[in-house]
Amino acid sequence: MTKEDALKAAFVAGLGIDPNSDFDSLTYRGIDEWDSVAHMQLISEIEDAFGVMLETEDVLGLSSYQAAKEILKKYGVDA
Asked: Any residues with CB less than 8 A from the CB of 12 and at least 6 apart, and which?
């Protein structure tokens, strides 16, 4: 599994969305499934998938799939 596949899997598990979703268009509150509770589940899934602990500013800044990819780069993960 590639790192991008692992990130997509984290979004699927954390948000309960279809694996065939248009990930590039996903934004916080842009879909019904991505509310504040699901956001914390998503953070947990990402942290588990990549063995990182996101800083508070990154948890708050994770507002889209693209933002998640950029944030993970700070932790040495190029998804």
From this structure: 18, 19, 21
DSSP string across the chain: --HHHHHHHHHHHHHT--TTS-GGG-BTTTSTT-SHHHHHHHHHHHHHHHT----HHHHHH--BHHHHHHHHHTTT---
Question: How many CB atoms are closer than 10 A to CB 17?
Answer: 19
First to last CA, the chain: 11
| Nearest partner of 39 among 18, 20, 67, judged by Cα | 67
User: From CA 67, how far away is CA 4, in angstroms rounded?
Assistant: 13
- In tens, the pLDDT along 43-73 reads 999 999 999 999 999 999 999 999 999 999 9
